[in-house]
TrEMBL record, chain A:
Protein name (record): Immediate early response gene 2 protein-like
Family: Belongs to the IER family.
Basic and acidic residues compositional bias, start-end: 92-110
Region (Disordered): 65-121
PANTHER family: IMMEDIATE EARLY RESPONSE GENE
TM annotation in the entry: none
Annotated organism of origin: Sinocyclocheilus rhinocerous
Superkingdom in the source lineage: Eukaryota
UniProtKB/TrEMBL annotation, chain B:
Family annotation (SMART domains): WD40 (SM00320)
GO MF terms, alphabetically ordered: protein phosphatase regulator activity
Superkingdom field: Eukaryota
Name of the coding gene: ppp2r2ab
Protein family membership: Belongs to the phosphatase 2A regulatory subunit B family.
Organism: Sinocyclocheilus rhinocerous
GO CC terms: protein phosphatase type 2A complex
Keywords, alphabetical: Repeat, WD repeat
This protein's name: Serine/threonine-protein phosphatase 2A 55 kDa regulatory subunit B
Oligomer and partners: PP2A consists of a common heterodimeric core enzyme, composed of a 36 kDa catalytic subunit (subunit C) and a 65 kDa constant regulatory subunit (PR65 or subunit A), that associates with a variety of regulatory subunits.
UniProt entry tagged with the keyword Repeat: yes
Pfam family, one: WD40
Amino acid sequence: MDVEAKRIMALSISKLYSLRTQRGGLKLHRSLLLSMTMRAARDIYHTAQLLRDAEEEQVVPCAPDAAPEEPMEISKDSPQTLTPKEVAMKPQEPKETLEEDKENRCASERHSRKRRGKTALETDFLPLKKAKMETDEEKQHLQGEVLRTNNGNSCRQAETLTAFPTNRTIVAC
Amino acid sequence: MCGGLRAGGGGNDVQWCFSQVKGAIDDDVAEADIISTVEFNHSGELLATGDKGGRVVIFQQETENKSQPQCRSEYNVYSTFQSHEPEFDYLKSLEIEEKINKIRWLPQKNAAQFLLSTNDKTIKLWKISERDKRPEGYNLKEEDGRYRDAATITTLRVPVFRPMDLMVEASPRRVFANGHTYHINSISVNSDNETYLSADDLRINLWHLEITDRSFNVVDIKPANMEELTEVITAAEFHPHQCNTFVYSSSKGTIRLCDMRASALCDKHSKLFEEPEDPSNRSFFSEIISSISDVKFSHNGRYMMTRDYLSVKIWDLNMENRPVETYQVHEYLRSKLCSLYENDCIFDKFECCWNGNDSVVMTGSYNNFFRMLDRSQRRDVTLEASRESCKPRQVLKPRRVCAGGKRKKDEISVDSLDFNKKILHTAWHPQENIIAVATTNNLYIFQEKVN
């Protein structure tokens, strides 16, 4: 179930990305549905993660505190890597949301002390290739025609994998 | 379990025959040729289509020999014009697509025909008029337009009108711009013939057909904080007779009926139509498939029909808590929702339509299939718009989809369906059994078989 959830999360994120460069401007309806589906999948996945960690904690004996610190921090970030980047949707308010992100992250670090097994989740969630129909060749062709793209020119590209707020809807222009 | 309930057969069933197909034959579809809307006018004499390239093509029914029942009236091209062009919003750095989202005809008042066409941002009122006479015999000009030498003019004459080859002219009479921040999904002409509404994802505006520089906002569901957005408007329509009533559907599967007499801003609905979700059907994609893609009032104004991804529902306007009828369009897709999410088909917005006497409804599906749902006889049939069934007067054979298990002869399995071939737009002649079905870039016209 959580494998499915993970796949749907990754799918949703890549679709949300491609929405941004689509001709005709951001489709509010589609991005709303995508983010809702992504959140539903994320919730299932997190629940499954928590259950699995609870099981692991019972199985694995206590380790020194220093060692789990690092994996904990990385893996705490990883849930946030999976959710859509709202900053890109609200270009006029990038700073606010980043600061809020930091608040969220701190809050979650405070409350959740659970160990998470996997540390390499970031790359796991990136779809290696987009699972789409042939018609999307047209879409990608059209994307090339749009004047504004993110290809290498926007600093947002670098940020996208690490600074995802978890509970935001996608905002229309 | 295989699809296709008791289909066809029986004395009262209409048999559909191929009549015509419009559009290019080749499989290589140009993006601009993709049909995006189909609409008959109020008499059914004219049939308009809009496409992704911003063009409108109007077909006219031939009126020869209507007294002979065997005669099939054909639709031929009447007028073609470029309604919308691609635009660029410099402030937001966004391209505005020229795709025609909707066409709605105005009831005919004089010799000319009027229609509203809209793209994502701008609505236009077009006048389509015929010219079959022209003035001849000018004093100062030759017939070809060249000016005559004044010295050679010795007499004066009065120009007269002479017949000419019929010319159909389309001219934009009004442009209703800058009314919408979000993408327009619906327009609907009011029964008062003076106003119309236009709806985008978050707002519905009321316009007067004569006034282009302002509109009145009647519904606004934009939250103060966009992060709290949970639903959008997906379709809207005026009641066919009550000029104060309209409905709008949402992405959450609800329909709200609003009365403009109640208050100026109709944020508070008069009625809310909602069916509780079946918990056994809950999945990741429940939200998406419950989103309503189309809402249409019945001609008699007592019912409305909604289309979501898998079903068509008929609602009695007097009963809000559940629909009176539910029809499964392609239930066999329920187990394929994940794949359909992957290939984006789950976001396809199917339309639906009523026949003239509200006894049958029609909607499209995949593989160029479309469904006819007979309310009075409780029958449904699946038909296909295909180049293989294009012989004149060829009767359409009912199609069956096999969801699983052993596939019978003549059945097609779900996995063989072509999801690139979708019928999103269909229209039914207001009086006769003539239907227009749009595949990706072709328009099929089917008629009732006449014995």
